[in-house]
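[Automated response] Your request has been received and processed.

Submitted sequence:
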Amino acid sequence: MKKLVLRAVFPLFLILFSAMGMAASLNSYQEDIQRIFLREAASKAQFTKAVQTARLLGYLEFMEPEAFSKFSQCMNKEKNWDMLSAKAREQLLNNCRAQGRMVSSAPGPIFVPGAVSPATSQKQEQEFTSIKRELSDIREMVEKLSQNVKQNQEKMSEALDQISRTPSQMAPPIAPEQAQPLY
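Generated structure:
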């Protein structure tokens, strides 16, 4: 039983420690890039480079630690960020930015415009048509209901007007002492 527990717990520890290692390397990489940015931002001649470094810092700020390894591999194709021109930095960031993104939700089908199968497209069209029909029916019901409510309000106000006009024509109520027995 203990061996079974150890076999289950050991991989969890490995995953935890590897994630901590990635986070540490992401943090150290981010700190290095921040130092480069501060140096470049202080120099007017390196302003365009500083802009690309700021972009890189923006990507790093919101990057999941698990995605850093792929991003880092892509960025390491060009060995030294510090020596790249602004244009080369821009191209490198554009090429690598997708590597640093992770989908945080449950995996599902990926929608690619123009890549919808005809069956899926037809099913979606049918669902859309059905929803349009239901909305139209609901609109008609709401319209009829509002007309009925308006008619009922008009009838109610007419009845109240009639009642308010004719109280003198109505006989006064008879007191129980004055009432004659019916037998």
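Summary generated for your ticket: Confidence is low (pLDDT under 50) at residues 8-23, 103-108. The chain has five helices and no strands.
If you did not submit this request, please reply to this message.
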